[in-house]
Fold:
Amino acid sequence: MKKSYSKIGSIGIVFLLTALCSNAKAQTKTVTGTVTVGENQTPLSGVNVSQEGSDQVTQTNSKGFYILQINGENPIIIFRHPEYAEKRITVNGKAVINLSLDQKVQGIEEVVVNAGYYNVKEKESTGSIAKVSAKDIENQPVTNVLSSVQGRLAGVTITQNSGVPGGGYDIQIRGRNSLRNKDNSTIDGNQPLYVIDGVPMGGEMTSLYSTVILPGRSLNPLNSINPNDIEKIEILKDADATAIYGSRGANGVVLVTTKRGKSKRLNLNFNTSYGLSTVISNLNLINTSEYLSMRKKAFENDGISTYPATAYDINGTWNQDRYTNWPDKLVGNTAALSNTQLSLNGGGETTNFLLSLSNNEQTTVFGEDFKYKSKNISSHISHRSADNKFQMNIANSFSIQKNNVIRTDITRQAYNLVPNAPELYNSEGGLNWQNNTFANPVAAYNSTYTNENKQFLNSITTQYEVYKNLLLKLNGGFNYQTFEELSLQPNTIYNPAYAAGQSSATSTASKNNQDRFSFIIEPQINWNYQSEHHKIDALAGGTFQRETNEQGSIVGVGFESNAFITNIGAARTKTVSDQITNEYRYAAFFGRLNYQYLNKYIINLTGRRDGSSRFGPNKKFANFAAVGGAWLFKKEKFAENLEWLSFGKLRGSYGTAGSDNIGDYQYLDTYTVSSSYIYNSVTGLIPSRLYNGNYSWEKTKKLEVALELGLFKDHINITTAWYRNLSSNQLVGYQLPSITGFTSVLANLDATVENKGWEFELAAQPLKTGSLKWDTNFNISFPTNKLVSFPGLEGSTYANQFIIGQSTSIIKLYQLEGIDPKTGKYSFTDFNGDGKISSPEDNKVAQDISVKFFGGWSNSFRYKNWDVSFLFQFVKQKNRNYNSIITVPGSMNNQPVEVLDVWSTDNPTGTYMPYTSGVNTLHTFFQNSTASVSDASFIRLKNVQLGYQIPLKNSVFRNVKIYIQGQNLLTVTKYFGVDPEFLALGYLPPLKTYSFGLQFNL
Structure:
């Protein structure tokens, strides 16, 4: 009986299981469809398609197609893609579901930023990190990415040195912390650290011969990277973000991440653009009639009735009816630029790659065949294991920049040349010297400056998950760079009537070579833990870096023919400089501990112990640390029900960072080989620097408090930050008694510089209705800078440069009181009352030429296939004006129209004293008086772009876009000078550019 029951039970169970399986099979269905984006319904690959509450997941292929098995009565399907807004669709019995995804509104909750050694969600970040993405960078008609980010970042000022391509940029992140600059030191102690894909780049290559064409001999390190190869730029500003970089983070850190392969299908992209550039100028000059009237009045004032034989402009030698706009003639040419890029990217489930080739060429406004060329090859390979435990990224970049320009910038000469000067060329096409009366400015075209920079940059990042939540990482890479420059001064730059211009025996060639090789290895271990209420992320690692620089130069004078001028070995006289090899070694241990409680209270601790070969044996190591905290108060009960507030965070940080940007061997006794001191045929050595074993780091203490808000579902995001940086232990020249044989020795003095200020940022999406989208961003910064202390300042060589309690960017000037009606001469305040004007006794007026506030306002609009964007940049400042370099009014030089406001009894309020044809002893005081500084504020339409994506059907192309761009299109300013953006007057200003481009994607 029991056996029968058992048999019946077994049969029942079998029937029950069969029924259940049949029912499950009946409820399992297949859903298919296609996912697209945009007005053209472009197929989108890589979309994760899943059923809510199920582990069934699939992904769209290269055609946007998917197949998903679902079950249940009426399930919900979720479509997710990192770059597009998530969509949830109820099946409602449908077997085919096609849909289009919208561009994601990426709020602060979702943005991930790179903090150097780790990534962090922006909502959880305790530090200050500014970010610019590829969409704001790419396709702009620039050769350096810094041009494209001007005005976009709060707290970051960027100034372009010159309109000559291949030059430098001055970038300041929250002000100037160091007293060392190019005026009082060979190295600017305020430059940030550049890190490309995790590999620190060295400073600027040392240029010896570019002074008269590139201000400050500056060649920015980012010239070697094509802006279109950059995925994003992040700038670390506060202590929490920079302390982990220790001795190199005081002036901020610029992190550049290059593009990498993303798509699982093969993509071929071709982008080409062509543009035209012209000079920006706000300075108007007098015409021939006004000029000749000025000259005649000058001779009349000097009591000269018979014009000198050398006054060719007015004594009848030159045509007095002739007029030439020399700025337009000499620097008013149109420069052409072209940029072409071809990239290939693709991959599979575990491996992606990208290969990019680009070529950029730009001519100059000087005319002739001067040209800047840049060629780049970059690649990126990323791989992960199938179980995601192992990951590796390899990035390589090889670039060549060749720059061939005029040796001497003739911008200043163009504004000084008299309007009735003769033709540049004679009837035979040769240089016109007008019977030896004309110093022809285009003779300078025969003198050239060329440089070639080659760079190979490699970075490797690997990580392996040893155990759950425990990662071993290894970052490494190397940077190899060669730099060669050649300066040629053939005799043809001189009038052949004079000795210097008659023979190639006076021709000069100068050559400089520099090689740099550096490598870095950074092993790391990362552990994280997460529970219901707690989250811990810990990082520990080390750094070892070694860099060698080799440099040598040679100058040759006198050649049998200028055909041999590039071969200095053919020179009759050769001078070989020291052949120098420098080595820099750097080692460090660093760590980070991040703790979160309830996902709303966050504390972040970072620290680093650094050792550098650049400092004395007593001070080779130093410690740097920071603490940051954040409170996500939106998650508190008092804010949970505030529907208008979608995000709220209060954060702050305090810590120290340092700077070892001071050059190598500065603490050692050094000697210079002297060819002028020879004894018994033995070349002598001259002491050039004194030993200082306590030579140490400059340190900066950083404090910041910030409030971040997201309003109306993150359609409006606001950030307000206050910061204060105190930089001490300043490396300056300590004055020594003359008996030592040295005027000073570099030492750390207890001088302190304070930088503090406010930063405000606003990002909003005012419109997002249907096909119309509008994004707007605004930022403004109010920095202040002050020298807090400088013991012994009054008795030092810096007494005429700094004042305690004032900005470190002051210049001391004579006080111009006006023009004395009794003498008709400039009158200056005699502060010490000794009856004469002299320095440093009487140049006591301190004018601050630092920036008072700056910012930018950008907007982008998208309507169907059209997109348009523009950026305004604004700066409030004072600076040197044209009066600081103006020639004596009445001399044989052209003048701006402002000199027509000359003093006379009929014009007692005139600005300039009566014209004179000779030497004016008061003119130098005038150039360095309060008249030489004025408002240099400006508002600039920095960039405009209009693009149209061509609708395509059944085409081999995925999409085709045409676009036009404008750069520096409009400048509103009251500045008296050529352009208000400069570091040194008299050089070519930034250029206005229009460009047209095409972009094809296969």
About this structure: The first helix runs from residue 2 to 27. Confidence is low (pLDDT under 50) at residues 1-26. The longest strand covers residues 534-557. DSSP finds nine helices and 49 strands in the chain.
